[in-house]
Design brief:
Mean pLDDT: 97
Distance between the termini: 26 Å
Low-confidence stretches: none
Helix content: 40-55%
Order of helices and strands: EHEHHEHEHEHHEHHE
Strand order of the largest sheet: 3-2-1-4-5-6-7
Number of strands: 7
Oligomer: single chain
Length: about 270
């Protein structure tokens, strides 16, 4: 099947600057399908890059922008904080000013794993607030700002929120992250109904164990393999590329009757949900 309806569209992908990630392949595959792409990142300092990025001479969103341009599409890399409402408003205004339109928004930016992976009673309040601010409030701000443009343009469009299986699983010691992702599910479903009459589709993609930088705190080799074997019936971790293909389908003509859905992409980790 050839996906259609993406050529000439303008897509915004947040959190798109990591070498091993979900955001980067989403941006590249949207460009391959014919989209011009706006890429946002936090403006990480190079000394914070993981070793593989340093070795590759990686330049965060600028490197991904080069990949988009190599496919013959326009790219606009922008340092932007999704957790800051004025910053998101400025981003939306700039995108519309430079491209004249917006058609697709992929809310991929997320807070890094870390000090939030503790019991609730031991969690510092600023840690909780940071996870909620980036994951849930950031998705809300982006959806509010760009959703208004999608409605006002009158051409429909697609918002895809990159959530997580954690928002359905809701396991212990991941409560801030799980709460933020469960909130994204509620936001997704409510907005899908609200924006449906304007032909704006809103869906969420819920990855399970995906082999990206986010799991670098689990050593590769036996610890990682044991985690996958214990949780994934298909017996392997997923890839960012596989998440990107699902996003493309949801944004295409072939996905035009899909909205308000929370798609697990997890190798069978959480069947039926």
């Amino acid at each position: 099947m050839e996906l259609t309806g993406l050529d000439g569209k303008v897509a915004v992908v947040t959190g798109a600057g990591r070498l091993r990630s979900i955001g980067r392949p989403i941006a590249v595959e949207l460009a391959r399908a014919g989209c011009d792409v706006v890429l946002t990142g936090t403006g990480r300092a190079p000394e914070r890059y993981p070793d593989d990025e340093k070795a590759a001479g990686w330049r965060d969103i600028d490197s991904v922008a080069d990949e988009v341009r190599a496919l013959g599409r326009r790219a606009l890399p922008v340092v932007s904080d999704v957790a800051d409402w004025p910053s998101v408003q400025e981003l939306a205004a700039r995108v519309v000013e430079e491209f004249g339109r917006v058609d697709i928004v992929v809310n991929n930016a997320g807070a890094a794993r870390g000090a939030d992976r503790v019991p609730v009673i031991d969690m510092d309040v600023p840690v909780w607030e940071h996870v909620i601010d980036v994951n849930l409030n950031g998705t809300f701000y982006m959806s509010k700002a760009f959703g208004r443009h999608l409605v006002d343009q009158g051409r429909g469009g697609s918002i895809v929120n990159i959530s997580s299986l954690a928002g359905k699983w809701m396991s212990a010691r991941t409560t801030a992250y799980a709460a933020s992702k469960a909130g994204i599910h509620a936001l997704t479903c409510g907005m899908a109904v609200e924006l449906g009459p304007s032909q704006v589709r809103v869906n969420a993609v819920c990855p399970g164990i995906i082999d990206t930088f986010r799991l670098d705190d689990v050593p590769r080799g036996k610890p990682f393999d044991d985690l996958v074997a214990a949780r994934v019936p298909l017996g392997r971790a997923g890839t960012g590329q596989e998440c990107a293909w699902l996003v493309l389908y949801l944004c295409s003509d072939q996905g035009s009757w899909i909205t308000g859905q929370l798609y697990s992409i997890d190798g069978g980790t959480l069947p039926g949900r």
